[in-house]
Every structure is written in structure tokens, then in C-alpha cells.
Amino acid sequence: IFLFLVIYGIILKRGISMNTKSAIKNYLSNNVSSISSVVIFSVLSIAFKLLNPICMKLIMDYSIVPDTTDGTIKFGNPKMVVLFTVLMGASTVLSLVFDSIRSTKTVSFGNDITSELRSLAYQTIMKSELYEVNKISNDELSNTIINSTTILGDSYISGKLIKILYNALYLVSLLIVMFVFNSSFAFITLLC
């Protein structure tokens, strides 16, 4: 729903025609599953990316344990270090898998919107008067439709908008993890 509102709000600001707005609105409302899959895979990818710093902290906590009696450093539980190292490797692999699935779904999402807009453009041309269509050459008309729909669907929505939303979600999640680990360090990082 949030993605739909953002896309719809940007479309309103851009001044895109009402038919285009309604086509994108209809596509988004009819294909909630593709939007949901992009959101789910984005959240999973971010979760596994953020598991790495948590594992690294736990590795450091379990590998180097200061001895409070004489001030020396001794090594901690090696089994826990191995466990968290394996967990960190697995989270990296899963993050890459979910990120590639998210990227594929995002491209598919943009292609679907592009094809929906092209279909709408061709339907509009077929409904228009013949003398209006003959004013423009067929090549110029085709190129204009293809270029305009590609810019809106592929480049703008899947290429920029979804990436911006993904990166914003990742940044907020990263800040939350930083505040959980060390709030003063996170606050200093925000000030810089």
C-alpha cells in the first residue's frame, strides 16, 4: 500500500495523463502479489545483511574475553566463534540470494508496468481519429511510445523509485541496529 501511494503521489506531481495514472493504479491494485513479493524479498535481504554485524559483534564477544583478575586477555569459547562465523557466512549467502530475487522481481515489476502502459498507448491510438494518427509517422509514433513507457516503467519505477525505497529501508534498519549496539556511537555517526 505504501509503495502504491508513493508511486501514485509521484505520478500526480509529474503531471502524467489521467489514462496513465489510471493504468498504473489499476495495475498496482490488480497485482498486489508482485508488490508484496518485492517488499518481502527486500525485508529478507535487509534482515540477512544486518545479521552480519550482529554476528561480528558476537564473534568479538566470544573470542576475546578479558580476564578481570590480572588484566590479561584470554581466548573464549571457540565453538561459539565457529558457530557465529558459519552463521555470518550463511547470512551473507542468503542475503545475496534474496537480493538477487528482489532485483529480478523489481525488473519484472517495471517491465509489467511498461507493457501495461504500451498497451494503453496503442489502445488510445487505435481509438483516435485516423487523420490525427496520420500527422505523425509510424516510426516516430512507435519510438515515442517505446521510449516514454520505458522511461516511466523500467527506468523510473523499477530503476529508481524502488531502489530509493529499498535503500531508505536499509538505512533506517541499519540505524536501529546501531542504536541497539551503542546508542552514543550511533548518535555521533548521525551528527557527522
Describe this structure in words.
The two termini are 34 Å apart. 86% of the residues lie in helices and 3% in strands. It contains 7 helices and 2 strands. It has a two-stranded antiparallel sheet. The chain is elongated. A hairpin with a 6-residue loop joins strand 1 and strand 2 (73-75). 16% of the residues are buried. With 192 residues, it is mainly alpha-helical. The model is unreliable at 1-16 (pLDDT under 50). It has helices at residues 2-14, 18-30, 32-63, 78-127, 130-133, 138-181, 183-191, and strands at 64-66, 73-75.
Quick structural summary:
With 192 residues, the protein is mainly alpha-helical. The chain has seven helices and two strands.
Task: Set down the secondary structure blueprint.
Elements: H1 2-14, H2 18-30, H3 32-63, E1 64-66, E2 73-75, H4 78-127, H5 130-133, H6 138-181, H7 183-191
Antiparallel strand pairs: 1-2
Helix pairs in contact: 1-2, 2-4, 3-4, 3-6, 4-6, 6-7
Continuous helix count? 7
Structural class, by secondary structure, is mainly alpha
Approximately how much beta-strand content do the residues carry? under 5%
Q: Helical percent range?
A: over 70%
Distance between the termini: 34 Å
Number of strands: 2
Radius of gyration: 25 Å
Low-confidence stretches: 1-16
Strand order of the largest sheet: 1-2
* Major sheet characteristics: 2 strands, antiparallel
Descriptive tags:
3% strand, 2 strands, disordered N terminus, 7 helices, 86% helix, mainly alpha, two-stranded antiparallel ribbon, 192 residues
